[in-house]
């Protein structure tokens, strides 16, 4: 068994639950091996090109993006895993169909069965490739958010990344939907047409364990907490690093199963203002 898979299985196991004492927590600045660059930007020694941003969203702003992910982005012409099983040519959306019968079981709803949505250049899960002919408009709002983050990262300590980010134009995205028992196996993202373009990852919802490895599966990965609102960028040497999500963390036992992170509670939101702290 290679080093990456060994760590993946370690954090995935249910009984007994894994020891999380070695998981990197970016909310604890005194911890190692990461270094703080500016504000809430972090990097990890030995992983050049990897940037971690602790939730920069203003209060209430995350909710807007969660709504887009479950109400707007699963709509046509975007592609999702349900296309092979249901007719989506009508005006009714996955969200509306799932909410139309309040007495129905959530586990039987389309929303519960939603696993992924592709945006812009659509990933082909069968051939594991992107095609220039399989393309729809990339959501302008999401594109502007990514461009804003890229602009914020362009400061001297990140010169190598800044040169790449300065010409960044978001063109493709995959939205993954996780349940508490979901995992994402170790892999590299090598199907994109331009492998010099950085990967951006935005997370909303329950916390998770994220594994960041190296260019081979023989390199043991580092485990870190990934919380709602956190952003990761994988560029330069980290662009083709192995990574995975072995575990979604359940809410505390004293909370209800539907408990949301505090940062996801619906609050007063200035829809005309900025959603990210400057």
From TrEMBL:
The keyword Plastid does not apply. The keyword Iron applies. Binds 1 Fe(2+) ion per subunit. Pfam families: 2OG-FeII_Oxy_2. Residues 50-253 form the Alpha-ketoglutarate-dependent dioxygenase AlkB-like domain. One of its GO terms (biological process) is oxidative RNA demethylation. One of its GO terms (cellular component) is cytoplasm. Keywords: Dioxygenase, Iron, Lyase, Metal-binding, Oxidoreductase. One of its GO terms (molecular function) is class I DNA-(apurinic or apyrimidinic site) endonuclease activity. Its EC number is 4.2.99.18. Fe cation binds at residues 187, 189, 243. Its cofactor is Fe(2+). Gene3D superfamilies: Alpha-ketoglutarate-dependent dioxygenase AlkB-like. This is Nucleic acid dioxygenase alkbh1. It comes from Desmophyllum pertusum. The gene is ALKBH1_1.
């Amino acid at each position: 068994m290679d080093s990456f898979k060994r760590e993946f299985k370690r954090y995935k196991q249910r009984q007994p639950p894994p020891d999380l004492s070695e998981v990197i927590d970016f909310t604890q600045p005194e911890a190692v091996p990461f270094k703080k660059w500016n504000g809430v930007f972090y990097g990890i020694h030995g992983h050049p090109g990897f940037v971690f941003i602790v939730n920069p969203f203003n209060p209430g702003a995350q909710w807007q993006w969660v709504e887009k992910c479950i109400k707007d982005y699963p709509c046509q012409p975007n592609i999702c895993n349900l296309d092979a099983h249901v007719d989506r040519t009508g005006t009714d959306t996955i969200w509306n169909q799932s909410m139309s019968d309040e007495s129905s079981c959530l586990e039987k709803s389309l929303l519960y069965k939603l696993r992924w949505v592709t945006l812009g250049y659509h990933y082909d899960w069968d051939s594991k490739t992107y095609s220039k002919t399989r393309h729809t408009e990339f959501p302008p709002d999401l594109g502007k958010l990514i461009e804003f983050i890229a602009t914020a990262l362009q400061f001297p300590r990140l010169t190598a990344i800044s040169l790449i980010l300065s010409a960044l134009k978001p063109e493709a995205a995959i939205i993954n939907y996780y349940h508490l028992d979901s995992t994402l196996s170790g892999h590299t993202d090598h199907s994109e047409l331009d492998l010099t373009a950085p990967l951006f990852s935005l997370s909303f919802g329950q916390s998770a364990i994220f594994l960041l490895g190296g260019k081979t599966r023989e390199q043991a990965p580092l485990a870190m907490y990934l919380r709602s609102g956190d952003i990761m960028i994988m560029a330069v040497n980290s662009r083709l690093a192995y990574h995975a999500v072995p575990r979604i963390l359940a809410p505390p036992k004293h909370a209800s199963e539907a408990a949301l992170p505090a940062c996801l509670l619906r609050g007063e939101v200035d829809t005309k203002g900025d959603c990210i702290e400057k």
